[in-house]
Specification:
Shape: globular
Structural class: alpha/beta
Radius of gyration: 18 Å
CATH superfamily: Glycoside hydrolase/deacetylase
Largest sheet: 5 strands, parallel
CATH class: Alpha Beta
Number of domains: 1
Length: about 260
């Protein structure tokens, strides 16, 4: 009990005592190519810490992101499609993924994709100390640098989509930008895959200019739908860009 109280006290008094109230990321989904909307309060919080979940509503640009906590056999197919269609992406990886599938992480970097930080052990970062949070981020960055040619890491996707002012401020101090998302659906449950059309329909129904798309590579549906999704979105006039492009164009700064 004493250890729990001490941890709570440490967290509550860390990083200049900014709020550590947990925020679970959420938004009103876009439809008819209108942008998703997280609301004024969330928008202000993200702006304060230079985070983002969508881009310019006037540019038909999409940003493709994947969360990779573990491998389910479909990432090679996803990478094949991205290579064929010349589409850049970012893969947010955990320590487990780095240790279990280093060859796929190497391939991501070698084929021009970005590897982002999804923490080492996928904790609720609002419930760990400052030092533990820093360690979670540092280990992913260092292991990625050890096994690939990517030596820098600038983008963070908070595990479980949970964040707070404290975790955002601390991540900023460590050189990270929080990357949330404006397109998502229940694609991560490997026991509830419903066929490629389920993935396709969910993506196409929510798509909008400036969308940051969140997909999971554990999904068979996503792997089978991805090529058609990309081709059909290109046919609608959309282009796919990297998050480095986003930072330079939307934020006006080097990544």
């Amino acid at each position: 009990m004493a250890a729990v109280i001490l941890l709570a006290f440490t967290i509550a008094n860390s990083v200049s005592a900014v709020s550590n109230f947990p925020v679970g990321w959420g938004f009103t989904k876009g439809k008819n190519e209108q942008q998703a909307d997280a609301g004024k309060e969330y928008d202000q919080l993200l702006q304060k810490y230079n985070a983002f979940y969508k881009g310019n509503p006037n540019d038909k640009i999409l940003y493709l992101t994947f969360d990779n906590g573990y491998e389910n056999g479909y990432t090679p197919k996803v990478l094949d499609v991205l290579k064929k269609e010349k589409v850049p992406a970012i893969f947010f990886v955990t320590g487990h993924y780095l240790k279990s599938k280093p060859e796929l992480v190497k391939r991501m970097v070698n084929e021009g994709h970005i590897v982002g930080n999804h923490s080492w052990s996928h904790p609720d970062m609002t419930q760990i100390s400052d030092e533990k949070l820093k360690e979670e981020l540092k280990r992913v960055k260092e292991e990625t640098a050890r096994i690939t040619t990517q030596k820098e890491m600038h983008y963070l996707r908070p595990p479980r989509g949970i964040l707070s002012e404290r975790t955002m401020q601390l991540a900023n101090q460590e050189g990270y930008t929080h990357v949330l998302w404006s397109i998502a659906f229940k694609d991560w449950n490997v026991d509830q895959q419903k066929g490629w059309k389920y993935s396709y329909d969910n993506i196409m129904a929510q798509v909008h200019p400036g969308a940051v798309m969140l997909l999971h590579t554990v999904s068979k549906d996503n792997a089978e739908a991805l090529e058609k999704v990309i081709k059909d979105l290109k046919a609608r006039g959309y282009t796919f860009k990297s998050l480095d492009y986003f930072m330079m164009k939307e934020k006006g700064k080097d990544p």
